[in-house]
Amino acid sequence: MATTVASRSSRAVRPGGRSARVRAAVHGAALELAAEGAAEALTIPTIAQRAGVHPTTVYRRWGTVAELLADVSASRFAGDLVVPDTGDLRADLDRYAAGLAKDLTDPDTLALVRATVGIGGEQGAAVCRSERENQLVAILERDRARGNEPPGIEETTDAILAPLYYRAVFTNFPLDPAWVHGLVERLLADQTSS
Amino acid sequence: MATTVASRSSRAVRPGGRSARVRAAVHGAALELAAEGAAEALTIPTIAQRAGVHPTTVYRRWGTVAELLADVSASRFAGDLVVPDTGDLRADLDRYAAGLAKDLTDPDTLALVRATVGIGGEQGAAVCRSERENQLVAILERDRARGNEPPGIEETTDAILAPLYYRAVFTNFPLDPAWVHGLVERLLADQTSS
C-alpha cells in the first residue's frame, strides 16, 4: 500500500508540474496572440508553436480554440475580483464601475474579451461577464440587507454593465471617469424618482 | 477607338459579372461558416473551399479574414435600414429598438456580429454598429427639429443601443418586447424628470 501511494504521488507530482507549465505556456501564448490582434493566428498549431509544445498536447487538453480561450478568460476574470464594500450603494457602484472600466481599458484584456466572444460564442461571452454580474448581485444584496431598496439586477446591468462593455468592445471611445460616474448617477436618479 | 471601347466594355462586363459572383459566393460561404458556429473554420482556405473559388482569389481581394468579415457585415448592416418617422420620439425609439432587437435575435446575424468583433476587432465592431448609431442620430435630430429637447446621443446610446447589444452578444437572455420597450421608457422618464 505504501509503495502504491508513493508511486501514485510521484506520478501525480511529475505530470502535475509539467501539466501546470504546459498550461501556463499555452495560456500565455494564446494571450499574446490575441493581444497582437492576430485573431486569425488563433489556431491550435500556431498557439502550440508559440508555447513551444506539441499541437497534440493542446488538442488533447482543450480540444478547440474556443475551449482554450474560455479557459484563459476564466482564469483571467475569476478570483482577482473584490466586491466593493463601503457601506453605501452609490460608493460601491462607483468603485465597481471604475474597476470594470479600468479592466476593460487594458488592451490585452479587451483583445481577450473580443477573441473569446468571437471564437467562443455565447459560452465564451458568459465566461467574460459572469463574475462581473456576480459582483453586482452581491453589491445590490448588501444594500437590501441594510434595509434599502436598491434597483434590480436587470436594471443595474442595463445601466452600468451594458454601456461599459458596449463602449469598450464595440467603439473606440474612452471609458473616461466622468462618463463612468454618470452611469451610476443616472441609475440612482431613476431610483429616487420612482 | 470603337474597337477599344467595345473590347474594354466586354472586358469590363466579364470580370464584373464574375467578380460579383465570386463576391456573392465568398460572402455566402463566410456567413454560412460563421452561422455554423465554426469560428475556427473562418480561415481563407476554408472559406474559399466552401465558396468554390481559389484561395488566391480571396487573398487578393480581401487580404485577411478580418477584412472579409468587415465587408460581409458592411453589406449586411448597411442599406436595408429605414429610420422610423412617426412624428413622435417615443414611438420612433420604440420602433427602432424593436427593429434592432429583431435583427440581433436572428442567429445568423448574431453569429456574424460575434465573428466580426472577434476576428475584426475594433474596426469590425465599428462596421456592426455605425449604421445603427446613424439611425439613432437621425431620430434625435428630427425630434429636435420639431422643437423638442430629446436626450443626447451618448445618453441614448447608453440606454438603448448598449443594453441591446450587450444582452444579445454577451448573454443568452431573450430580447423580449417588454424589456425592449422598458429601455425606451426608462430613457424618456429620465428626460422628463431632468
List the helices and strands and how they pair.
The structure is a homodimer of 194-residue chains.
Chain A: H1 2-35, H2 44-51, H3 55-62, H4 65-77, H5 89-105, H6 107-145, H7 153-170, H8 177-193
Question: Greatest interface and its residue counts?
Answer: A-B, 43 and 43 residues
What order do the helices and strands of chain A follow? Answer: HHHHHHHH
Q: Portion of residues in helices of chain A?
A: over 70%
**Strand residue content of chain A:** under 5%
Give the N-to-C terminal Cα separation of chain A. 69 Å
CATH domain class of the largest domain in chain A: Mainly Alpha
**Main sheet properties of chain A:** none
CATH topology of the largest domain in chain A: Tetracycline Repressor, domain 2
Low-confidence stretches of chain A: 1-13
Organism (chains A, B): Promicromonospora citrea
Keywords (chains A, B): DNA-binding, Transcription, Transcription regulation
InterPro entries (chains A, B): Homeodomain-like_sf, HTH_TetR, Tet_transcr_reg_TetR-rel_C_sf, TetR_C
Pfam family, one (chains A, B): TetR_C_11
What report would you give on this structure?
Two copies of one chain form a homodimer. Chain A has 194 residues and is mostly helical. Chain A folds into two domains: 2-63, Arc Repressor Mutant, subunit A, CATH 1.10.10; 76-193, Tetracycline Repressor, domain 2, CATH 1.10.357. Chain A is built from eight helices and no strands. Chain A has helices at residues 2-35, 44-51, 55-62, 65-77, 89-105, 107-145, 153-170, 177-193. Chains A and B meet through helix 6, helix 7 and helix 8 of A and helix 6, helix 7 and helix 8 of B. Chains A, B: It comes from Promicromonospora citrea.
